[in-house]
From TrEMBL:
GO terms for molecular function: enoyl-CoA hydratase activity; isomerase activity. PANTHER family: ENOYL-COA HYDRATASE, MITOCHONDRIAL (PTHR11941:SF54), ENOYL-COA HYDRATASE-RELATED (PTHR11941). Keywords: Isomerase, Lyase. InterPro entries: ClpP/crotonase-like_dom_sf (IPR029045), Enoyl-CoA_hydra/iso (IPR001753), Enoyl-CoA_hydra_C (IPR014748). One of its GO terms (biological process) is fatty acid beta-oxidation. It catalyses: a 4-saturated-(3S)-3-hydroxyacyl-CoA = a (3E)-enoyl-CoA + H2O; a (3S)-3-hydroxyacyl-CoA = a (2E)-enoyl-CoA + H2O. It comes from Actinomadura craniellae. Gene3D superfamilies: 2-enoyl-CoA Hydratase, Chain A, domain 1, Lyase 2-enoyl-coa Hydratase, Chain A, domain 2. Belongs to the enoyl-CoA hydratase/isomerase family. The keyword Isomerase applies. Residues 235-255 are annotated as: Disordered. This is Enoyl-CoA hydratase/isomerase family protein.
C-alpha cells in the first residue's frame, strides 16, 4: 500500500480506507487510483473484514474527482473501462461499503460515494456531478436513477451545480448526516449495526437489494430466493432463533 491511500484493518471487522492526498483535494490521480484498487482487493480478500468505510483525508474534500491536469497531459478522451476503482463495477466486492463524505464529493468523488452501498455525510459536505462544466461526461451516473427521482437527477447532471449535504439527505442520496467532528463515529456506528447481523444474512440482503434494481419483479423474486438459500441452510440460521429463545446474544460464525 502506498501512502496515497491508507488502510486501517480494525479488530472489529471494519476496514477504514482513506484517500490521502488532501493537498490535491484527494483527486483521483494515478497513485490514488492504484492505491484504491489495492485497498479494495485487500478488503475483499480478508475474511476478518466485513464492512469497509471509505473517506478522505483533510476537512475540505472527500474527493474532488479526476485529475484534470493528468487528463490534459495524456490527452484523455474516453477513459479506459478499468481506469477508476469503482466498487461493484470495476471492482468486484461481496461485502457492504459505506462512504463517509467529509467535504466536497464532486464528479469522480460523487461517483465513489454513489457506488458505495451506504453514505454518511458531514453537514458541511457538498455533492456535484460537474462534468458539464468541463466538457466531460458522466455515464457512471446512470444507476443514480435507482436512488433519486428522475427530475432531480436531470437537474443535477444538466446544471452541474453542487447540492448541500442536507439536500443530498432529503433526496435519498445520503443515509445519515453528522457534524464534521462526529462523521467517522457516525459511519462506524452504522458499520457496527451491520456487523451485528449474521454475515450470510447481510450478504443475502445486499444481493436482494441489487437484484431488485436490476430485474423486474418476478425475476428479482426468483433470483433473490436462490441467493438466500446459502443463508437459510447455514448454521447461523439455526443459531439466531436459538439465541432468541434462550434470551442471549447470537454467536455468528458465518457458516
Amino acid at each position: 500500500m502506498s501512502d496515497a491511500v491508507l488502510f486501517d484493518a480494525r479488530d472489529d471487522g471494519i476496514a477504514v480506507i482513506t484517500l490521502n492526498r488532501p493537498e490535491t483535494r484527494n483527486c483521483l490521480a494515478r497513485d490514488v487510483r492504484e492505491g484504491l484498487y489495492a485497498a479494495w482487493d485487500r478488503f475483499e480478500r480478508d475474511p476478518a473484514l466485513r464492512v469497509a468505510v471509505l473517506t478522505g483525508a483533510g476537512e475540505k474534500a472527500f474527493c474532488a474527482g479526476g485529475d484534470l491536469k493528468e487528463m490534459v497531459e495524456t490527452g484523455l478522451r474516453v477513459p479506459p473501462r478499468d481506469m477508476f476503482p469503482v466498487p461493484y463495477d470495476t471492482v468486484e466486492l461481496s461485502k457492504p461499503t459505506i462512504a463517509a463524505v467529509n467535504g466536497v464529493a464532486f464528479a469522480g468523488g460523487w461517483m465513489l460515494a454513489q457506488a458505495c452501498d451506504l453514505c454518511v455525510a458531514s453537514t458541511t459536505a457538498k455533492f456535484a456531478v460537474t462534468e458539464v462544466k468541463v466538457g466531460r461526461s458522466s455515464p457512471w451516473a446512470a444507476p443514480l436513477i435507482h436512488m433519486i427521482p428522475q427530475r432531480i437527477m436531470m437537474e443535477i447532471l444538466l446544471t452541474g451545480k453542487p447540492i448541500t449535504a442536507q439536500r443530498a439527505y432529503e433526496i435519498g442520496l445520503v443515509n445519515r448526516l453528522a457534524e464534521p467532528e462526529d462523521l467517522m463515529a457516525a459511519a462506524l456506528e452504522l458499520a457496527g449495526e451491520i456487523l451485528a447481523g449474521a454475515p450470510l444474512s447481510v450478504r443475502a440482503a445486499r444481493e436482494t437489494v441489487m437484484l431488485g434494481t436490476e430485474m423486474g419483479r418476478s425475476a428479482a423474486l426468483q433470483a433473490a430466493r436462490h441467493a438466500s438459500e446459502l443463508c437459510y441452510n447455514s448454521e447461523d440460521a439455526q443459531e439466531g432463533p436459538r439465541a432468541f429463545a434462550e434470551k442471549r446474544a447470537p454467536r455468528w460464525t458465518g457458516r
